[in-house]
Design goal:
Helix content of chain A: 25-40%
Radius of gyration of chain A: 35 Å
Shape of chain A: elongated
Strand content of chain A: 15-25%
CATH superfamily of the domain at 35-86 and 178-263 in chain B: P-loop containing nucleotide triphosphate hydrolases
Number of strands of chain B: 10
Shape of chain B: globular
Largest sheet of chain A: 6 strands, mixed
Number of helices of chain B: 10
Distance between the termini of chain B: 43 Å
Largest sheet of chain B: 6 strands, mixed
Oligomer: heterotrimer
CATH topology of the domain at 35-86 and 178-263 in chain B: Rossmann fold
Chains: A alpha/beta, B alpha/beta, C mainly alpha
CATH topology of the domain at 380-558 and 571-593 in chain A: Rossmann fold
């Protein structure tokens, strides 16, 4: 049947409503034609109930007109409205619990004062529509199920033979299968020609049940139109059909805030990418060779250190004709950097140096690295690449809680964030109160930190119950090794964030030299900026791909302080083969540890990361632990592991956990350790790097 | 979650057909689920959803068609072999082991990891002891996650309905399966319990478990799934992201019957 | 508690099952020194033999939820096999027992594979049928089995030249074996395999969905119970010295089932009690000659009504619940 311009049964113009001084409705205009079903959709607090209260006369409006059939009824009492044929099915059903179904229904007709016969006829109609109620007509309504009560509520409203039926959240709190039934009834009523004003949080249902819909947010109508058109509209789908989900409160809040000028779709960014343009490994290799040759010449020309170094080795830049010739070159070590203090490896004149960074020197003098403007720009460029690979966009808000100042981390993360167009929130390290405050208030979506800080913050977020209030999606962390269980813990406590490990070292620009793959099984590194070799730390011979060894790096474009075969002392391995994520950039594993991390125990070399992995595999343990190495009076070494129980794990399980740890450690590392279990949260956590190995044995001069 | 271009089809069926007597319960159903995603399977009652699950798990033999999981063909495999490939499931009408304890029920979920040898069991070798201990700790952890640790020693039959539903889940997830088939995990639960189960499912999804979710509760399907496939009368009638499927007129028609939107 | 005491307590808790079995063995050990009447000791020895069969049967019907009305056949095969091998081929009793057990295992497999597809009534009938066939063979194949008068002159067990003669020595052999069988069964039940059996007893479809090979499990536990019965039978033959077919008919099978049920389905400790109870009862009722069978039947029915979980299990359950209620009443705390 074609939709003629029907008479408007209900017309609302400029309606405002105040609760004391607070304004709830800001000029509502809407229309319900006779026989039509109109839906009002909005999140909690949008003003739906206020609107219904204004229409039914429960609260007089503070302004505007409510026209029922052309007559202004604004401010009339609710009994008056009832007598005019406006019936309400209240939110939460509001049964007269002790009264039977029949008694409740009869009450519904009260206002229209029907005669006995008429009453009987109406009851019969309701029972015909709701056969279930007929079966239960003598039961007190408090004994009925939610769905049945909702039927009573609707039936009660229908008893009044209303001209306008107002349904307030009919699906609220109903079991899923029952909601289908209720909406089926609403559809049928609608087809039968009843004029219905349906108020719902569940936008999808409301839109499919109505012809016209109004989207209410913050007391205002933000959108109106034909329901099926609104169902299809992408922006509104996202804003409102997502609004019902409890999982995504921020999205509903944005939508509910009526901020339709916020682009909820990804805007058309210029397809800017920071990924290198190489299509094949050969192209990459050719680029690397060019970079290597340039670095050789540049270093030789600009740095007295490198000149002497090359001469000592008897190698000239011309000798480098292929990437294999890298093997001819000697190594640069951290000691070389310290010896050449304060501007080691400097290969450009001072006027070109625009910045220095320094590492946290724990042993001896600090390592100071210089940067030219190009170095700074290159670094920002490939750091932006890290963000790109992690899926960070200009819509993201990147909260940076790593150290600024001399340390490379803060500036690095910030420059990269700005380059990729995201909003940088430079909170700096520590200050958990501020971090939490900003996570909630600014709705940061990315958090940058050390692994320890990540855990600290995750526990704080959990303690304060903030997981539902924050919209954190990603955590990018670096400069510290992390175990599987630590990552899992951080992810869980913060409501399911994705973690990205970001490698890097001060000598090699800073963090950002690669980033964990979006498939989380490897780290892609930027091979167009440096060459990575994996060498045996003892023999310094190259290892086949896949074996663990020391990372040795050679820069390809670094000007102020180029690195040629710099021994980083970090242990990792190359992962050969193509990556499932599609990137052709080569990959390495997460850093296993440092060559000086390893400790010797009864003749066996042990990495803390191995202990990490063992503890991560045992269910019921927390992610923090300590390794205490002691020597007794008889010169025997002892290892004591202090391990946290998992959160919420009671002590009763302790004995079995202990046995399991002892057994697995013995099995995997061939060491019998003492194990002490402590309560969750009792071991110290730090914002920077957590110290876990405490070796109080007498140190030999050579380890 | 950042999705890459090459996301292999973890599970794929094609041309899956099953008749009961002359009636087609499934007709040429093509279905795919991607790794790490939750794929919902919806449709009105009798659409063939449980039949589909039963075919996947080897309880029923399809008449025609193939089912490939992680590169392996599932047709013809008995249920316990399919389970050992890493596919676990819950049952629509609950199939707990009522006479044994809650903890033992969850331990049964770890059957594939518990060893098969009678001899080893008889003499109780140290490696069996160690394995039992590890399983015990894993089962307890699962009970913690699903909120049932306080009732670990109860006979499973004594639990409330809501607890039993969660026990089925715990039993399905404890072994860290590659694929979990959830058959109406919230049917019959009140809103609070539904929310609790929904939160657990979302938590498992965040952990990266691939799931196929058969459900009627649209809120759960919207909030927990990445893709939706719709069955009606044994045929696939629609598929796509939840939002798209929701407004598909064929889908609405299947669920609600024809609605005249205009009078 | 100091470290030593804590370590001991922990050891005891962790090995409580093994220590309990050992404890029971030590508790039973002094009995022959006190109870010198050989006839009474003989009954105790019979109880031990029955217990070995009942433990295996309990694993099959109590734990794995199946049914067998023919286990006396395996008991008989064990007895006859061992008897024939020792009398005809001069094999040592240990070798005979071992070989017979291996043979019975194969027979069980051969029977099990087709019949365990059946369930409930059909399986019961099949096992009953099997028992009847085997019994008939014992009776008819008189060249080998000695026919209705059976075999005699079966040598007793011996080890390193020492033979187990007399009730007292047999007591330690038989009860030692019964305890070992108990230990093995307890171990099985608390392993992954055992849980798999309990699962398939409750719900085969669900168990299969967990990865339990239901068919293999049923056949395996059937075979194990047959082997236990066979070993019991071999020990029986070498203990009695003489065997006749009527010991191994269907009524014996039903007796075994009653022992399982009274002891408690799925309760292994209960199997000992069940074996004891059913073995002793006819002797205790001996004075009531004619009405013996009726009273026997009545007592069995009454026990099943009053203590449905079985002798031991029901008392344990009663004790636990009473204690729990009293505790919560005293402390006003929920248990």
């Amino acid at each position: 049947m074609a939709m003629q311009s029907r008479k408007a049964l209900l017309k609302i113009e400029g309606l405002t409503l105040h609760y004391g001084a607070a304004q709830a409705l800001f000029g509502i205009d809407l229309e319900v034609a006779e026989g039509e079903t109109v839906a009002i959709v909005g999140a909690n607090g949008a003003g739906k109930s206020s609107l219904l209260k204004a229409i039914t006369g429960v609260i007089p409006p503070s302004g505007g007109r409510v026209l029922l059939d052309g007559q202004d009824v604004a401010g009339k009492s609710s009994s008056h409205m009832a007598s005019l044929g406006v019936a309400l099915t209240p939110e939460g059903r509001e049964m007269f619990g002790d009264l039977t179904v029949r008694e409740n229904l009869v009450l519904g007709a009260l206002a229209s004062k029907p005669g006995k016969a008429e009453l009987g006829r109406r009851l019969e109609e309701v029972f015909a529509r709701f056969p279930k109620l007929r079966e239960r007509s003598d039961q007190p309504t408090v004994t009925l199920s939610g769905g049945e009560q909702q039927m009573v509520a609707i039936g009660r409203a229908l008893m009044a033979r209303p001209r306008l039926l107002l349904l307030d959240e009919p699906s609220l709190g109903l079991a899923p299968l029952v909601t289908d039934e209720i909406f089926d009834i609403i559809h049928r009523l609608s087809r039968a020609g009843t004029t219905i004003l349906l108020v719902e949080q569940n936008a999808a249902r409301a839109l499919t049940a109505s012809t016209t819909a109004y989207l209410l947010a913050n007391g205002k109508i933000v959108r109106s139109g034909k329901s099926d058109a609104l169902l299809v509209h992408p922006e509104l789908r996202r804003a409102f059909l997502g609004a019902a989900s409890k999982d995504n409160p921020a999205q509903s809040r944005l939508g509910a805030a009526g901020l339709t000028n916020i682009r909820l779709e990804k805007p058309d960014m210029s397809r800017l990418t920071f990924m290198p343009p190489f299509a094949s490994e050969q192209e990459l290799a050719a680029h690397q060779l060019r970079g290597l040759q340039w670095t050789m010449r540049h270093a030789r020309e600009g740095s007295s250190f490198y000149r002497a170094w090359l001469d000592a080795a008897g190698v000239t830049p011309e000798d480098i004709r292929s990437l294999d010739d890298l093997g001819k070159l000697p190594f640069v070590t951290a000691d070389d950097l310290r010896d050449d203090y304060p501007f080691p490896l400097r290969s450009v004149p001072f006027e070109q140096i625009v910045r220095i960074h320094s590492s946290s020197g724990t042993t001896g003098k600090r390592k100071i690295l210089c940067y030219t403007q190009k170095d700074v720009d290159d670094w920002a460029h490939f750091f932006a690449r890290c963000y790109e690979m992690a899926g960070v966009t200009p819509l993201d808000r990147v909260q940076i809680s790593v150290g600024y100042g001399l340390w490379t981390a803060g500036v690095g993360f910030q420059a990269g964030a700005e380059r990729v167009g995201a909003m940088a929130v430079p909170t700096g390290p520590g200050n958990l109160d501020l971090q939490c405050e900003f996570l909630v208030d600014l709705q940061s979506t990315v958090f940058c930190c050390t692994a320890s800080m990540g855990l600290l913050l995750a526990e704080e977020v959990h303690k304060r119950g903030l997981a539902e209030k924050i919209t954190l999606k990603k955590v990018i962390y670096g400069s510290e090794r992390s175990s599987v269980s630590m990552r899992k813990k951080i992810s869980e406590l913060m409501g399911g964030v994705e973690l990205f490990d970001i490698p890097g070292l001060t000598e090699l620009y800073g963090p950002g030299t690669g980033i964990e793959c979006p498939h989380h099984d490897c780290i892609h590194y930027w091979a167009d900026y440096y060459i990575l070799e994996i060498l045996d730390p003892e023999t310094l011979k190259p290892l086949p791909p896949g074996e663990w060894g020391e990372m040795v790096v050679t820069t390809l474009a670094k000007e102020a302080a180029p690195l040629i075969r710099y021994r980083t002392r970090d242990i990792t391995r190359i992962i050969p083969g193509p990556c499932t994520c599609g990137s052709i950039l080569p990959r390495h594993s997460r850093i296993k540890g440092r060559t000086d991390d390893v400790f010797k125990f009864r003749g066996v070399n042990i990495y803390p990361s191995t202990i990490d992995a063992i503890l991560s595999s045992i269910p019921g343990l927390g992610s923090e632990y300590q390794i205490h190495l002691t020597r007794d009076a008889e010169e025997r070494d002892h290892m004591r592991l202090v391990v946290e129980r998992g959160e919420g794990v009671e002590r009763g399980r302790g004995e079995e956990l202990q046995r399991e740890i002892v057994y697995t450690v013995k099995h995997k590392v061939m060491v019998t350790a003492e194990v002490e279990l402590v309560d969750y949260g009792s071991l110290p956590r730090s914002e920077r790097k957590t110290k876990r190995v405490f070796d109080s044995r007498i140190q030999d001069s050579i380890i | 979650m950042a999705t890459a271009t090459s996301n292999q089809m973890f599970l794929r069926t094609s041309g899956l057909t099953k008749h009961f007597g002359g009636l087609p319960a499934l007709h040429e159903v093509g279905f795919s689920a991607r790794k790490g995603e939750v794929t919902a399977l919806i449709g009105p009652n009798g659409a063939g959803k449980t039949t589909f699950i039963n075919c996947l798990t080897g309880v029923l033999r399809p008449d025609r068609g193939s089912m490939v999981f992680d590169g392996r063909e599932l047709s013809g495999l008995p249920p316990h072999r399919i389970a050992r490939l890493g596919i676990s499931r819950t049952f629509q009408n609950l199939r707990l082991f009522s006479g044994i304890s809650v903890l033992d029920n969850v331990l049964c979920g770890l059957s594939a990891k518990a060893g098969d040898s009678f001899l080893e069991a008889f003499i109780r070798t140290p490696s069996l002891r160690h394995r039992e201990r590890r399983l015990w700790l894993t089962a307890l952890e699962a009970l913690d996650t699903f909120g049932l640790s306080a009732k670990a020693d109860w006979p499973a039959g004594a639990l409330s309905y809501g607890d039993k539903k969660r026990l089925e889940l715990a039993r399905a997830f404890v072994s860290g399966p590659k694929l979990v088939l959830l058959d109406e995990p919230v049917a019959g639960l009140n809103p609070d319990e539904t929310e609790r189960v929904g939160a657990l499912i979302r938590q498992m999804r965040r952990g990266g478990t691939t799931m196929i979710l058969v459900e009627h509760d649209m809120d759960l399907v919207m909030s927990a799934s990445d893709r939706v496939v719709v069955l009606d009368g044994g045929r696939r009638i629609a598929e796509g992201p939840p939002d798209d499927v929701r407004r598909n007129p064929l889908v609405l028609e299947a669920y609600l019957g024809k609605i005249s939107v205009t009078a | 508690m100091n470290a030593r005491a804590a370590a001991t307590a922990s050891f005891i808790t962790r090995h409580r099952i093994g220590l309990s079995v050992l404890g029971l063995f030590f508790a039973l050990s002094p009995v022959p020194l006190v109870l010198t009447n050989p006839w009474k000791l003989g009954i105790l020895n019979l109880i031990a033999l029955h217990a070995i069969v009942v433990l295996g049967l309990n694993l099959f019907i109590g734990y794995a939820g199946q049914i067998s009305l023919g286990h006396a056949a395996f008991f008989g095969l064990g007895a006859y096999g061992s008897a024939i091998l020792t009398t005809a081929s001069g094999l040592s009793p240990w070798a005979a027992m071992g070989l017979t057990a291996a043979g019975v295992a194969l027979i069980a497999l051969a029977i099990g594979v087709p019949t365990l597809r059946l369930s409930g009534h059909y399986l019961a009938m099949a096992t009953l049928g099997f028992n009847i066939v085997v019994h008939n063979i014992f009776v008819q194949w008189d060249r080998v089995t000695g026919g209705p008068s059976g075999l005699s002159g079966i040598p007793p067990f011996g080890v390193f030249g020492f033979t187990f003669q007399g009730e007292v020595q047999q007591y330690y052999l038989l009860w030692g074996t019964a305890m070992a069988t108990l230990m093995l069964s307890l171990n099985l039940v608390r392993s992954g395999v055992g849980r798999g059996l309990a699962a398939l007893a409750e719900d085969e479809i669900s168990a299969a969905a967990m990865g339990v090979d239901v068919r293999r499990g049923k056949i395996a536990v059937f075979t194990v119970s047959a082997v236990f019965a066979s070993i019991g039978g071999s020990l029986f033959a070498h203990y009695m010295g003489t065997i006749t077919p009527d010991t191994f008919g269907i009524f014996a099978s039903i007796d075994f089932v009653i022992m399982v049920v009274i002891g408690g389905m799925g309760s292994l400790w209960g199997s000992l009690a069940g074996a004891a109870f059913v073995t002793l009862l006819p002797h205790l009722l001996g004075t009531l000659e004619d009405s013996k069978d009726i009273i026997y039947g009545l007592i069995v029915v009454v026990i099943l009504l009053v203590l449905p979980r079985g002798l031991i299990a029901e008392l344990v359950h009663l004790a636990k619940t009473r204690l729990a209620r009293r505790w919560s009443a005293v402390t006003n705390r929920p248990t």
